Fold Heme chaperone HemW.
Amino acid sequence: MSPALPEGDVAPDDGALPASAAAGAAGRAFGVYLHVPFCTVRCGYCDFNTYTATELGGGASQAAYADTALREIALAAGVLADLPRRPVSTVFVGGGTPTVLAVPDLARMLGGVRDAWGLADDVEVTTEANPDSVTPQSLAALADAGFTRVSFGMQSAVPHVLATLDRTHDPRRIPDVVRWARDAGLAVSLDLIYGTPGESLDDWRTSVETALATGVDHVSAYALVVEAGTRMAVQVRRGELALPDQDDQAAKYELADDLLAAAGLHWYEVSNWARTSADECRHNLAYWRGDDWWGVGPGAHSHVGGVRWWNVKHPRAYADRLARGLSPAAGREVVDGESAELERLMLGVRLAAGMPLDELPGAARTSVAGLVADGLVDGPAALGRTADGGRRVVLTRRGRLLADAVVRTLAA
């Protein structure tokens, strides 16, 4: 069961945005997220808006999906026609498992984005993929279609951990898919999950070391969160699985940070490491920096000029609205004032670049000294004693482990 959509205002049937969305648009990057809501198997821990092929039919089927997504792209182009024209700087195809679609369908969706807005000369185009959903030929075809990057859902290199997560791929395939992607000219990221029930610290070390052995230039490592309504949540409630404690998760985060740093990868966001700044995921950075993006697909979220909206969740409802010439948006909200300030704070402090001290609300600045004393915020950065000389709120490693607590303190 995927999470419920947020509550918000009713979105107009034509998708029109308020005039305020255009303010400052020329100075913001514009990206596109393409959601592919299909998986061959639904993993027990996953609460994303995904469906297996047998659950859907008609206009919501995998075979019809690219055409449906193209309808929303055409609608989006019309809605944004009055804003300053910006070529798309990043495209991210997520899911689900996007690569369960045929490469020509993914290429057509990317082509629709190109036709609607144009692509920047240095555009970053990423697709997520499962290791068992690609071949050397499909990866080469993706590169030929204009994709520049692939993010593989590795999750673990340990069979019993993958089994608990209901992952179906053979971990021995990871070095192969990384090599195939690189041979095709694609940049590669590996996604890992730590804190799976039954995963030992040695298991986690094996996973991180296996990822690094591929020579990959980007790694994401996320703590497992067991969401209500998932099959894993039921297993935990029944006592069939036992979750690790916070100390276990902290030890695994610190181990990953040590191993990744020793291999030459720096953290640039709490859960993401890259070899160089050029290897960082620019699409995700746009989210964290509050740029504009249009989310295409059932349940996808969008943000343009402080206006956030979200699409209806079910693929059949999504396809039906677009077939009738209606926006698929289910609701929206305008993020301004204190809400915008809090959101900027929540996202900004997660970045290694931190937040300029003078961009914090006045009351928050008085809390920084205490956070430095508690070892959660870097003292030299806060005092302007770093190389750039600017005073910034930058998390220490302990602060990264307690990032939510830092935000609560600053927002109090």
About this structure: The CA atoms of residues 381 and 387 lie 9 Å apart. The chain has two domains: 19-288, 336-412. The longest strand covers residues 119-129.
